[in-house]
Amino acid sequence: MKKLLCILALAAGISTAQAQIDAFTPKAVWNDTEGRPINAHGGGILKHKGTYYWYGEYKTGKTILPSWASWECYRTDVTGVSCYSSKDLYNWKFEGVVLKAVLDDPSHDLHPTKVIERPKVVYNKKTKKFVMWIHAESPDYSKACAGVAVSDSPTGPFEYIESFRPNDSMSRDQTLYVDDDGTCYQFTSSENNQTLHINRLTPDYLRPDGTFVRRFVGMAREAPAVFKYKNKYYMLSSGCTGWDPNEAQLAVADSIMGEWTVLGNPCTGPDADITFHGQSTYVIPVNPKKGQFIACFDMWNKRNLSDSRYIWLPLNIDKETDKITIPWHETWKY
Ligand code: DGJ
Hints:
Elements: H1 2-11, E1 41-48, E2 51-57, E3 80-86, E4 93-100, E5 115-124, E6 129-137, E7 145-151, E8 159-164, E9 174-178, E10 184-190, E11 195-201, E12 208-215, E13 222-229, E14 232-238, E15 249-253, E16 260-264, E17 267-268, E18 279-287, E19 292-299, E20 309-314, E21 316-317, E22 324-327
Parallel strand pairs: 17-22
Antiparallel strand pairs: 1-2, 2-3, 3-4, 5-6, 6-7, 7-8, 9-10, 10-11, 11-12, 13-14, 14-15, 15-16, 18-19, 19-20, 21-22
The chain binds (2R,3S,4R,5S)-2-(hydroxymethyl)piperidine-3,4,5-triol.
């Protein structure tokens, strides 16, 4: 019947693609422009030449809990990193799996039996390369490495270079931040997730340059998302409770490698104490001069990871005090 309707629609010149979207509806299934659920988890957004690119974990197939698991290390087989493009942040076109799984080498970081998480892509103006960093893991989460891939185009293909422990330290949940002077930093949960490391990268963004600081010592912060507003750096992060939600935290600093001050939980409204059931992954600077930012969270479904959803909410910045809150909205437009 569905097939017949599609044929009739095509014959009548009606597009079968998804209708235009003009609002955000956190927690609902978000479809791409072809009407398929967007599959880009733990992701990050890059704006390049007027187009937004959303990169994320492409999670398909069964969610697996290994028989030897002593904790909830649910995973799906590695299928790669997906990319979607958009001009308006509402309507997303699937650009494909831009970093693909490696099927024929069981020792490779991208083999289906491994874990890859939290891909972030930045553009290097000097080398003109798109650089992706991921959390490269083993199924038992003991590898704790960062993996790096590069591409000449935002839509890939990305070529995987290598994985390593930045500055010989563990690296799990991570993000990248490029400052106004073009210097790139990796923020990563290190020291068994207890302490966050901020690693300055080499000018080509492919390795740490050896300068790093330990921050949030013993505070077990995960899921870092960094942004800048009025010359101050902000970091949104979660606590460390596996796939289960916990309280978000915002922190501020005058310089990236400097001292960070914890501001507390910015979320307000129902279930704000568990981040509305979400976990931070990125903050999009839509128009930073005007204080327009979107906080992006994943709502994990740990027993069916591919059905994990998205919660995107606007940052609310008080005009007089600059206090940042993230109020809950069932649906909203910017
Ligand atoms: C929390 C992290 O933020 C996720 O990316 C994932 O690593 C889970 N832990 C695994 O339990």
